[in-house]
Hints:
By secondary structure, the first copy, chain A, is of the alpha+beta class. Chain A has 7 helices and 11 strands.
Amino acid sequence: MAKPADAKGRPGQVACSICAMNPLCHPDAPDAAGLPCVERRVRLAPGEVLFSAGDRQANVYAVHAGFLKDVAPGHGAGVHIVRFLLPGDAVGLDSLGGGVHTTEAVALGDCEVCEIPAWRAEILADSRKPVAAHLRGLLARELAESRAHSAALATLSAPQRVAAFLLETAGRWQERGYSPRDFRLPMSRREIAGHLSLTIETVSRILSDFRARGWVRTAGRAVEILDAEALRRCLATAP
Amino acid sequence: MAKPADAKGRPGQVACSICAMNPLCHPDAPDAAGLPCVERRVRLAPGEVLFSAGDRQANVYAVHAGFLKDVAPGHGAGVHIVRFLLPGDAVGLDSLGGGVHTTEAVALGDCEVCEIPAWRAEILADSRKPVAAHLRGLLARELAESRAHSAALATLSAPQRVAAFLLETAGRWQERGYSPRDFRLPMSRREIAGHLSLTIETVSRILSDFRARGWVRTAGRAVEILDAEALRRCLATAP
DNA sequence: CGCGAGTTTGAGAGAAGTCAAAGTGTGTGG
DNA sequence: CCACACACTTTGACTTCTCTCAAACTCGCG
């Protein structure tokens, strides 16, 4: 499974077996064209941009190690963070249609991603039905998640959003074999705020409030969830 | 092209040639299996549900005539309307992955849709590369639109959202060969509010304000855009 | 003609944003 | 190894935008 992050919370890396792109890189049968699916591994420094909205160089990526944010082209100040990427996540799939990226992917810290040219993914899909189906499935799931997040922002209050974020993050850590109760956030308050459509002050205030209630313990980016049930109740309570 | 809506604003119908599903229904070469792609035409009465979130009966639909709304599973009161469907639009594509719908489609008025079983679309995609590519493109575009809408809700003020909605609606009418300055909204204020994450009162107030400024004329669902430039300025003005 | 859903308008309340400042941690260079 | 600088976080006071509650109004339809 996944290699644990070290004490300083540095990015673990993910085994290819649980990667969203696994069926592309490791097809059941040998590749007809004999091409390696992954063009190269890209290393990124904190803040480095993997691709930008409008890039014609369309690639699909799988996060191998580290964390990134997927950012919507923000007109000026109000930047909206579509989602955070953890090891094993796929990103840039929206370029499969028109060959253009519609968001920007930025490294949150040092990280490493596998680069798969879009045309290669498409050729692979054309020759292997399971790969085509897998790509459709990834796209469909991202679409569903995007809508779910949209609906969440539309209907939840600020505390509910923060509770949902903590629970969701815990769940994603758990999926990767880490503790869902004790983890280190890879992103700043500003980035959390951008993801939840709140301000940093509001996020900070709500975390302080959760801490005062004894639901969580926070120290900077370190988070310990003490009462997940309370968070779930907060999330479920009518706005 | 499209047949104009009549004076009472009843749904026009769309020629198959401009439908998003056209490449599926009318493939270049004759269908190997000899199957008609469209299973049947479904007629819906106002308020009737085409499919619900969680439906295992996965189908993809193309709107042939009339209008529908695509609704996110709303926990109680705060219903979020993902998007509105006009003739020629495709809906239900998110069921291509796991075979389950994640939203609910409801008719806004009398309408007629073409039903394509998901398995049939997938078989077709497996045998025809252009169809597979087209499906990926549709999925990718919907994903991009969903994120754009999400970002819009996150960063725009209430008046900006209403301005954006009017301009977007005008554009969609224009794409279909109707006047972008003079049209009839197929949805109620409540539904507009649900789509923009506002309340009906706020939507109504803002429309009244736009009317007072001479930017639009509204009478119930009838809209005439008098100053599109002003709306665009309103949209572009820093929140 | 009158009912009822939908829309408009008004007044007041509340949630989150803005502005401001203090506190905390982190990394760099001496 | 320590000291400083800078970025991030927390906290406080106040503002404002949108929601909520309430009532009048309009339109379509029986």
